[in-house]
Amino acid sequence: MTILDKFQPLQGAYDAVRAAGQDPFTVCFDAVLSPSEATLKGRRVILLGTNNYLGLTFDGECIESAVEALRQGGTGTTGSRIANGTYDDHAVLERRLAEFYGCRSAMLFSTGYQANLGILSTIAGRGDHILIDADSHASIYDGCRLGQAEVIRFRHNDPDDLARRLNRLKGAPGNRLIVVEGIYSMLGDTAPLAEIAAVKREWGAHLLVDEAHSLGVLGRNGRGLVEQAGVEADVDFIVGTFSKSLGAVGGFCVSDLPDFDVLRIACRPYMFTASLPPSVIASVTRALARIQEEPGLRARLTGNAERFYRGLRAEGFVLGPQAGPIVSIRMPSTEVAIAFWNALLEAGVYLNLALPPATPDNAPLLRSSVSAAHSEAQIGAALAAITAIGRELGVVAAPASRAEPLRPQGDGPRRASMAAAPIPVAPAAVAETTL
Amino acid sequence: MIRTSDIVDVIVGMVTALPQAPREVDAGTNIARDLGLDSLAVMNFVMQLEDRFDVSIPMDRLAGIQTIGDLAVAIADLKGR
């Protein structure tokens, strides 16, 4: 009997996945060559699962800014801002973020995960109520667990269910905080934000939107779903990450609340961790400017995402409800999902294998994320590889044998069954594991 | 005021309808272990109960719930607030 015995069922599940081929959770690239390509055991693979939405990881200006900051400011800050002090560049990036969103304040965190952990555990205290979408990311669940507030899940993307739950709280003291995401990470669907904002107003709640996957991706100026839905005045807190469209690492929260900065001496995941190094701050500051200067990046991403989504749908794959940078293909079983993932890697395409219970509706998924940096040839090659393997494994029918009903049009019944799961679940959330 | 035993009856009725339900289901049935539900499935099952009884069970309350009887007590308590 050891302290790790409790993980035996998890170990068993992991061993079963690994026995079927490569270990999907420890793929080690020889080298990452560009935002869209790497080498693996000497062979080139297309990167189609790295959330590098705008392809800025190799942007020349971002790299130059980072190198200069590295030489001038050193390799790291070696501590937190309350202990070691703030570098001027931290303050500049906070001001730029606040300006970008038109808010009074911005606060940096060392990762996006920590931004949710810090903000949720701090702003909602004992006696307050947090209402979270059931499909929320693990960092939202964990932020709730770290705090003292009562946490209630509402059905995924269901403003009526949210309103019912707020109604049940009628008369109970304490603040209400609603938490939703701009784009949900497993299926790539967006929140019905205008409707959720209306519920928020009706019930006098606060609203936090996590734009991790939608910053730089949605909205005319890249300000995410909040901008696209036109609800900026209704949102009290926006949380985001630097590790996706901005191509680095780190997280942030912006808010227009006048007293927001008091969190700097109250929020433990901000206070007791090392701040971001100068090179990261520099590349993120440059990347934030790039997404404002170059709307063409967003247009390219949207074009690639739509082409990829439509291409897969035309072949009969069951996808998430909306075309967007996250495109997930529903697999008929875990065994097929693992075989499919391995065959794709063999064919030179890397994407993510997502297994229950980390996925909505308990369905295994092949999750891909499209980038503005993907060339037409890469999107075409990925579509061809996925289609060929899909036919070989019987996930989709070959054209000759494909009957008309197997090709869903618009909101076809097969896609709808995935989009409107009868029992919404929480990806990568409740379960301590993603296996 | 709804009685805990009535809540147990409703939960047992819902559980019996699950495909993987064991033959004997009562207040002592362990929700996760005996019903073969992972933590996520438990939370989704609880969501159905919340609608049935028009009550929200906060997530921290779920941590202390093992059996159908525990769940019924929690619902009765929340209904009685």
From TrEMBL, chain A:
What is the name of this protein? Pyridoxal phosphate-dependent aminotransferase family protein
Give the highest taxon in the source lineage: Bacteria
Q: Which InterPro entries match?
A: Aminotrans_II_pyridoxalP_BS (IPR001917), Aminotransferase_I/II_large (IPR004839), AON_synthase_class-II (IPR050087), PyrdxlP-dep_Trfase (IPR015424), PyrdxlP-dep_Trfase_major (IPR015421), PyrdxlP-dep_Trfase_small (IPR015422)
- State the Gene Ontology terms under molecular function: transaminase activity
What family is this? Belongs to the class-II pyridoxal-phosphate-dependent aminotransferase family.
Location of the Aminotransferase class I/classII large domain: 44-386
Please report the organism this UniProt entry assigns to the protein.
Answer: Azospirillum endophyticum
Asked if the record carries the keyword Protein biosynthesis, the reply is no
Q: Which cofactor does it need?
A: pyridoxal 5'-phosphate
For this UniProt record, the keywords arranged alphabetically read as follows:
Aminotransferase, Pyridoxal phosphate, Transferase
From TrEMBL, chain B:
Among the Pfam families in the record, one is: PP-binding
Instruction: State the superkingdom.
Output: Bacteria
The Carrier domain covers 2-79
InterPro entries on file: ACP-like_sf, PP-bd_ACP
Quote the SUPFAM superfamilies the UniProt record gives: ACP-like
According to UniProt, the name of this protein is Acyl carrier protein
Species this chain originates from: Azospirillum endophyticum
Classification from the root reads: Bacteria, Pseudomonadati, Pseudomonadota, Alphaproteobacteria, Rhodospirillales
